[in-house]
Amino acid sequence: MTDIDQELGNSKKTHRFIWLAAITLFIVVIAGIWGTVSFVEQQRERDIRAWEIQLGIVADSRLASVEEWLREQKEAIVALAENESLQVYLTQLVIDTGENGSKITEVPEAGYLINLLNNHAVISGFWEPPEPEIRANVARPGRAGIALTDATGQLLVSSGNMPPMNPAIRAGMAAADSGVSAVIDIYEGLDGEPIMGFVHPVYAVQQDGNADEIIGFIVGIRTVSKSLFPRLMQPGSTHQTGETYLVRQNGNLTEYISPLADGTPPLKRKLSADDERAGSFVIKKPGLFGRKINYMGDEVLVTGRAVTGAPWYLVRSITTLEALSESQQRLNTMLGVFLLLILGVTGTVIAVWRHGTSIRAAELATKYKKAAEDLRQKSEFLKVVTDRQPTAIAVFDKEDKFTFANKVAADNAEMDQDEIIGRRLSNVFDQDVSKNLTTLFHQTRSDNSIHSQLVTVHQEGQDKIWKSDIIPLVRPNEQRSDLLAVFQDITDVVTEREQREMVLRNLVSTCCLFGPAGSILGEPVRSGCRGRGRNR
Question: pTM for the complete prediction?
Answer without folding.
Answer: 0.59
